Amino acid sequence: MNDLRTNGQRISLRLFGGPILEVDGEPVRLSSYQACLLSVVYGHGRDGISRSRVIDFLWNEMDGQKQRHRLSQLIYGLKRKAGADVILALPLDRLASCSADVACDLVSFHEHVEKQRLIEASSILGRPFLPLVDPAPTHEFDRWATSLPLTLRSTAAKRALALAAKAKQDNDWPRVARVTEAALALDPESEATLRQLMHALSMAGRQREALAVFDTFSANENAGSRREVDSETSALRDRIQRTADDQPFGPLIGRGKPAQDARMYGRDDELAGILCHITGGASHGLTLHLISGEAGMGKTRLVSEVLQRARLQEFEVLTANCSELEQAIPLNAVLDCLRGPRVKEVVRGLNDPWRAVMLSLLPEFREEGEPDVQPPYVRPGSVPRRLYEAIQMVVSELTSEQPMIMAIDNFQWADETSVSVLEFMTRRWRSGSLVLILSYRSTTHGDERAAIRFLRAQESSQEAIRTHLEELPRIPSLELVQELTSEQGIDDGVTEDLAVLGCGNPFFLIELTQEHLAGRLERPRGPEVPNLPVSVRQVITERLRALQPAALELLATLAVLGREARLSMLATLTDQTASHLLD
After folding, report:
1. Residue ranges making up the domain that contains 434
2. Distance from C-alpha of 438 to C-alpha of 445, rounded to nearest angstrom
3. Is 191 found in the same domain as 86?
4. Please, are residues 419 and 411 in contact by the beta-carbon 8 Å criterion?
């Protein structure tokens, strides 16, 4: 609340924590009736209140003429003490506030609500209303002073939840969390609002904060005991705990401070876009999401964030992580997805011959004493029709009760037989809601593996939804380095150097920062090349290995010239045309 200047004076009135009237920063001593008069008038807003109604608030029984005379004396004395005529407005037979001349916290509250500054509004209501009025002059005054803060809280909380609903439609989960936090502060006993805040925080990637909010709410003022919450709130808390602990593709990269504990920087738009398609799209059919990017760009982290939020939206989630060393194992990616108790339940509920086919592929689902089943012969890239049908039948059954996501990371290493199954599934899917997420390194020219051919075909189709991850901009790169070094603290210049050296690649940024903190990477000086960690060199070497000879020649020339060079100069040095270099 900013004080306003009137005739050279700054006049402010605080009703929350008051009433306290200050002129030029000095408190004005008011009689109890003068304090109550100011409170009633300013508490009734711009339209004011009739004099007869003011009298009802201030005096129980008194001769009407005496009451009016006493009210006039109160107004006169109040103006004298304030040293200003603008403390009250006197329109006809009414009294009104002079909000243009007197800074009042209740007026500020209404302005905050109107301008959607709900955190500021809730902070005003954090103080008690008129605690210095004790006792209240009348029962009417006491009832009004008790009910007004409740009305204000309810009005602001409804406004906050309406804004949260709008932000939710836009998939703006950070904003949903902000306004819902204000709503809970305004109505701290609302368990429904608590659940909305926990869900919003989790969807914004702040699962630990959501759990902390639950703990704060459920903590009882009496030491050693906790407040009882209903089963819906407890179930949400358990679901958030599972997603907070979940690492669908194993531990993420990085040493020292775990990478999964750091925020994901610079990918908010991509995350919001994918979630919008998944949670706001069609409720039936198969949707294919392709997430591509160079090694280290954060594809695995982005998909992990998507899956955490999808679980909160009650999606069934199946995952697999392909490996270059396992490309020759038939059905490796598909069978890795088909794990878990619910899949086992579905498999065992199938009729033969499909049940026998699936148990031959997933022998861990057999009950004790059941005979071994010989698995069907599977040649790479070729699957018996019955096996195709059995796998699709299992996946279809899994989607019969709730939507499902099947996410396969590092799909460029997927085995040929799994690719064949997915081709069959994408062509013939006629069942419930299935989202297929494939993340992979950007393909290179000349690679003709089955997974790469499948990806290229899907990239050129109109049905697949594509997300390509580029390098992080400067600010998110700096923020990531700053978070990773928050406990140790490093010079801003070093932070800038690490961000530049990382070239917007999250993996490089993490590895380089950890190497610097361990004392194995000195600050780069001038044009000299620092001793890069082995993990970073391996990624760079792999990218170089995939380049064509002409591209390698161009890269070697650029390495000599520096980070920037004119296209005409490169064309001369490499004996190539400018258009060929751009290709």
Report:
1. 267-469
2. 20
3. no
4. no
